[in-house]
Specification:
It contains 10 helices and 7 strands. It is of the alpha/beta class and about 260 residues long. It comes from Bradyrhizobium cajani.
Length: about 260
């Protein structure tokens, strides 16, 4: 699988339709990573830069790393629009970053660790972070969706659409993780782990949900290709059945693993 192809065609939608992270996340990151105005932060698998954009006003510099050039283009556009001059975008996988990227107080990986060679990434972070530096692994978890358990119904629809699996780029299948993130961290030098739990809520319309799906590895334009119109029509029909009032509520939380060295 080519990491840059997992989200082929998704960048435009990712920047506009992925839910914003709650402000509490950035307060939590600053507190647990011991960030100061002099800190440098590394954001791996940054996508369109949601984490980096949120942290940049409170630190001296953020390096946003992603293998997808289009995603980085959106991150660069957003940072310029917001007048943030202390963000750099770097086209690379987390495993193959330039050796000169060092001296970070914190490294963040949000909803991307599962795509990476996790043990290798932690090994390289051990050389890139300051002795006091920590890693933050951020995972978004859905607790409840109303009405009609709509998220699981969409999930079932997409799973059936692809013949019983989820794609990971054109012609590839999403890998299964046999070991959870915390277990991988405990086997690394970053085995001093604390957790944080941040609840929040997202409201959707059917139009936003359709556009959101185009931002995901399961239904981005690069994997749907010529079947996009068919997918769009069937998804919209399903959403109308699930909520004729066109209102979808998602109650969710962020699980954050903060990992430092002993």
């Amino acid at each position: 699988m080519l990491a840059s192809s997992i989200f082929e065609g998704a960048a435009f939608y990712y920047a506009r339709y992925q839910p914003e992270y709650p402000h509490e996340l950035f307060r939590s990151l600053s507190e647990h990573l011991f960030l100061t105005p002099d800190s440098r932060v590394l954001d791996l698998g940054c996508g369109t830069g949601q984490i980096g954009l949120g942290l940049a006003p409170s630190v001296t510099h953020v390096d946003c790393v992603d293998p997808n050039r289009a995603m980085l283009g959106e991150a660069d556009r957003l940072s310029s629009e917001r007048g943030l001059l202390n963000i750099s975008v770097i086209e690379s996988t987390a495993e193959e970053m330039d050796l000169g990227l060092t001296g970070y107080q914190g490294a963040t990986i949000a909803s991307a660790f599962h795509w990476m060679d996790r043990s290798l990434v932690l090994e390289t972070l051990d050389r890139r972070l300051l002795s006091s530096g920590k890693v933050a692994i951020i995972t978004r978890v859905r607790d409840e969706t109303t009405p009609s358990d709509w998220w699981n119904r969409i999930w079932d629809f997409v799973h059936t659409w692809w013949g019983g699996y989820f794609p990971a780029g054109r012609g590839d299948k999403r890998r299964e993780l046999r070991v959870d993130h915390e277990a991988v961290l405990r086997q690394s030098t970053f085995s001093n782990i604390t957790g944080s739990h941040i609840p929040y809520m997202v409201s959707w319309t059917s139009e936003k949900l359709v556009q959101y799906m185009y931002s995901t590895s399961k239904a981005c334009p690069g994997v749907l290709t010529h079947r996009r119109d068919e997918f769009d029509e069937q998804l919209r029909s399903l959403l109308h059945k699930l909520s004729p009032a066109d209102m979808f509520i998602e109650r969710c939380h962020l699980d954050i693993l903060y990992a430092g060295r002993y």
